[in-house]
Amino acid sequence: MSLIWSRDHAKTTMAATAILHKFCYATRQSPEFIAWIGEAQEQAIDNVKWVMSHLESNRLIHKYYGDFTAKKRWTSKEFITNHGCRLMAKGTTQRLRGRKEGSTRFTGMVLDDFESELNTKTPEARSFIKDWVVSAVYPAIDMDKGGFLWCNGTIVHYDSFLNGIRRDYHEALKAKKPFAWDVLECPATEDGTLEGKPMWESRWSTEKLKQKYQFYLNTGRPSKFFQEYMNKVRAPGDEIFNEEDIKNAYYTGFLKWDEGRGSWYILIDEKKVYGNIYFGVDPATSTESNRDYSTIVVTLVTEEYDYYVINYFRERVLPMDLAEKIFEFYKLYKPVKRVNIETIAYQEMLRDYMWRESKKRGVFIPGLEKGIKGYGKTSKKDRLFEGLQPMFKMGAIHLKASQIEFLNELLAFPAKTGATDDILDGFWLSTQFTSGFQRIGGKIRKAVIRAKRIKYDWVTGKRK
Q1: Where are the beta strands (DSSP E) in 342-403?
Q2: Core-most of 154, 177, 348, 380, by most CB within 10 Å?
């Protein structure tokens, strides 16, 4: 089960109360063994102590269920009741597999506010948490005997584990397919807006929510309010690339070669969509271990100027390894109309190397001799916003549902600390010079061909 609730709406208290309820109704023959997991163990300890204090001093529990306190292992990090129930505090990513209480494996786990801005900063960190839940947390629970997994929290990133559950849940509902998780969403208002009816009016009235929003607005962080209280990754109007626009233009076809026409095409709904292949290459600007990714984006551009993202490469590699990857991609997708490589600083050296190496190999890659000049004259935000946002809005750019990394970059743009936009840069480069002459920034003007003015020597009359 997943509780995706607004901040300060008692999701932690409800989870702790549910554990208390389970302990009160457990028996010696069927005890509970539960782990409470927070972002850090210290956070989990506070909730374990809350359950412990009620078992120790709640007179109503003592009256109706008895005294469960025991001398054996009764600490803030974990405790065992006198009828064999055990609760322990753990932090995110700590080891869980193989733990038992007697012959009992974990009967349940609570992941409470286990994701934060700190542990979801990078794609690697987010991937690590997902792998940890799937390969360490879930297998440690005895699901054959009615075990449970509760994941509670707020949405901290589009690519977070919780948002993935929410996103897939809504897609399963729309497609009327079964889904493994029970998902309960509770933004601060029914419709997720400041004007909507409060879900807990006695605690969070409309006036109080607006006061809270004003604080975030005045500190320059309105998106943080919508993230914490409305279950939204960004504030309305903040996003540059709209998720619905992107998903409405998804495609499911595959790239094929038509020998008869000598052209690439994608088969979509039994219709052949022909186009030319363009590459966009965005080399990383550093060779440090924490450098940006180097990317190669392969795009099919049709006669109607629809852009289909066929494939992309996204890795941290050394310059010569990237060069080899470009040759590999070129061999796979030739004929290629043009390869656009960013030409700033060391990237210009890569382009020059590629140009010389292609001559040695007898592989002549179009576009290498030109590159993309003036790339750094406009800001990245302006370049990508002005050049690509209208195209996404019109449904002219088509991704595959499996291209999650690209989708994440689009929805996180402009990138915050720890986020990347390297695929987005590579894609923008692949769209350049696809028609006439395309200026930096995405504006197109047709090439104007002027007749050469013939000049003559005024003394001899000969043509110069």
Answers
A1: 397-398
A2: 154
Domain boundaries, the chain: 2-186, 189-238, 243-445
pLDDT < 50 positions in the chain: 436-452, 459
Beta strands in 70-199 (DSSP E): 78-80, 86-91, 108-112, 148-153, 183-186
Question: Which CATH fold would you assign to the domain 243-445?
Answer: Nucleotidyltransferase; domain 5 (3.30.420)
Residue pair 201/20 in contact by the 8 Å Cβ criterion: no
Please answer whether residues 330 and 458 qualify as being in contact, where contact means their C-beta atoms are separated by less than 8 angstroms.
no
The model's pLDDT over 398-427, given as tens digits with 9 standing for 90+, comes to 999 889 889 888 887 876 555 678 899 899
Burial of 418 (0-12, 13-18, 19+ CB in 10 A): middle
Instruction: Write phi, then psi, for 76 (nearest 5 degrees).
Output: -70, -25
Q: Where are the alpha helices (DSSP H) in 133-242?
A: 138-140, 161-175, 206-218, 222-229
% of the chain surpassing 90 pLDDT: 53
Nearest to 389 by CA among 242, 273, 244: 242
